[in-house]
Amino acid sequence: MSSLRDRQIACIKRMLALDAADAQQVTPGVWKVLVFDALGQDVISSVLRVSDLREAGVTVHMQLKADRQPIGDVPAVYFVEPTQENVDRIVADLAKGLYEAAFLNFSSSISRPLLEDLASKTAQAETAGNISKVVDQHLNFVVTEPDLFSLGMRDVFYKLNAPAVPEAQIQSDIDRIVSGLFSVILTLDNIPIIRCPSGNAAEMIASKLDARLRDHIINTRQTAGTRPAQQAYQRPVLVILDRTMDLVSMLSHSWTYQALVHDLCDLHLNRITLPAEDSAKARKAYDLDPSDFFWQSNANTVFPSVAENLQAELDRYTREKAELTRTTGVTEIEDLDPLNAGTTIHLQAALKALPEMQARKQTLDMHMTIATALLKGVQERQIDKFVESEETIARMQKTTLLAALRDTQRKPEDRMRLLMIYYLSQEEVKKPDLAEYEAALTEAGCDLKPLHALKKLRDLTRMSVPAVSAAAPAVPAQQRGADQLFRGFSSLSSKFGERLQQAGISDNFNNLISGVKNFLPSSSNLTITRIVESLMEPSTGASSYTGQAKSLTDSYLYFDPRQRQQPVTKPAKPQTFGEAVVFTVGGGNYVEYGNLLDWCGRQEQAGRGKRVIYGSTAILKPGQFVDDLGRIMGQ
């Protein structure tokens, strides 16, 4: 089953092949220039490397806004948003004769007035003949994981909840979200059934998307993508949710590799930027390759297991390296000489294995550096204590919470997040108690605007208290042996003591381990996962939370773009789905993505194969979401 990333890559390669039906059919030796805008660059750079572009015949890639010199003997592939500014720049390029021909690819549908403007201006300049194709590619979404996508819309939660944002601006964002989801659906090539709660932005988006899909079906004279008519259970369900359905997951501290990297470092468009070691040194940055074997298998793994798996991979590399040097007689595998490759079978085998081993070692070294930086961040911010506290937040005593909020060893922003999670986890917090908690944060130098915004949002939306702790990420059962989990930390300390010492954490390493090794997060379904379970598997009794989620989704609206009737509250009979696309309006996070993956894994083990694609307007760090809350209250 092709992932969303695989499908997007195929679409991009087809575009670079000048939109040939098969990317392999393009005439060999046709070199081209790639010109993109900011969104186009984000889309392509998240899934393809420079070497991939070269394989597709791209000799050079440039920003549309940059000053570019003429390259008159090659065609140009444009990949840009359909805006007036971009169209005007393309018209100017054609007038200058920068390229032999122009293949215009718009990331979303170009409007008729804008298309007519392009035709009119190029006709007047007598350059229309230089345009070889104009194609709506429907690729205005960024894929950073096999089944995770973002629309790159950073401020949606703020705009939907801040009173001073003009209605026209909100409607513009709604239309942009609809366009992005429409593109995802076309890329998946399967028209979904749409479910959403009534009211708020989710319903507006679902209704507009339903209408657009109906028009698409009529215009293309088909009933389900380009596929033949299918039964309902073969179609996916698209679940559109307002962010206010669960704010805890946006604020919680996580214990999985990917979520920790996102929280403690900068993870954006598959580039990890580590915190600066000191002000005099530049920050280290690493690009996550789609073929990164270690990230693929460990991104959603609890961090101590990541350390152990990293050590196991390094040990395997050491053993294979020792075997190669023993059979070839060289001291280091880097000393192997390709000119002598024909001398022995052993040398031939060693030289064949050398590139893969060197690439694997480079990947492992990168993750070793990242893991070391995470360890330092865990220690400095006491992440383990926050994860443990949030695991049982609903039962936390007042004295315990006050002690945590007054702990000067913890960063103020982390303490703020802890109180916000506590507030969301209680049916009611007594005013005198809340005043004490706020005083503790004020003393720590915290701005209370985010907390006040949270209180208003809860009053307005009447957000329900989560039935279970939503702060802790789900942890597969096979990862829960304490000795195995934390042996990884110990081996990390002994094997790479020099790196840990350079990072300034080796002296306190044993104290750090002793503080976390007795704690493992529980395996629990987050709110979003319980909603998805109730919609994909309505008859299952496997989850103790299904009944609660059913009551939450019973009133969800039901849209079927293939049917003529208007949306109804629920289908005539319960439907089971094998695939789902889940989209949150106002921000998403890696905690929810990982939780959904874990649920799919458990379903697979139970013989119910499920696949969930997770998307959002933007993937936000907890700190970014807290900032958005503060901006709302600042209005």
TrEMBL record:
Taxonomic lineage: Eukaryota, Fungi, Dikarya, Ascomycota, Taphrinomycotina
Domain of life where this protein originates: Eukaryota
Protein name: Sec1-like protein
An individual GO BP term: vesicle-mediated transport
Family matches, as PANTHER family: VESICLE PROTEIN SORTING-ASSOCIATED
Family the UniProt entry places it in: Belongs to the STXBP/unc-18/SEC1 family.
Family matches, as InterPro entries: Sec-1-like_dom1, Sec-1-like_dom3a, Sec1-like, Sec1-like_dom2, Sec1-like_sf
Entries under SUPFAM superfamilies matching the protein: Sec1/munc18-like (SM) proteins
